[in-house]
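Before a computer can learn anything about folding, someone has to put a protein's shape into writing. The outcome of that step, for a single protein, is printed below:
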Amino acid sequence: QVQLVESGGGLVQPGGSLRLSCAASGSIFSIYAMGWYRQAPGKQRELVATVTSGGSTNYAYSVKGRFTISRDNAKNTVYLQMNSLKPEDTAVYYCNADVTLQIGIRNDYWGQGTQVTVSS
């Protein structure tokens, strides 16, 4: 029905930057919110940032001022620009989308995850 494909993860030194992308495809009528979550080893998945179709954003306190979420509604794509990365940002980052399908059903979808490692 809907696929979320993430890209942009990798290994970066502390203080560095990475940009994650997530493109949604399939039988999409509309997407209300898109966002990024992360899960570090031994920890629960946590919200990083979300953005609505109208452009309203929400950030975890730990990333405010360092990460920026943006969205291209025409491409059903969400981005996460991560600056001033810290070792504690190391995690698998997951894309999420609140999708209304063409048949009228509304579902929550997740990407497969992309690894971000911050280490010297």
User: Anything to note?
Assistant: The longest strand covers residues 28-39. The mean pLDDT is 96.
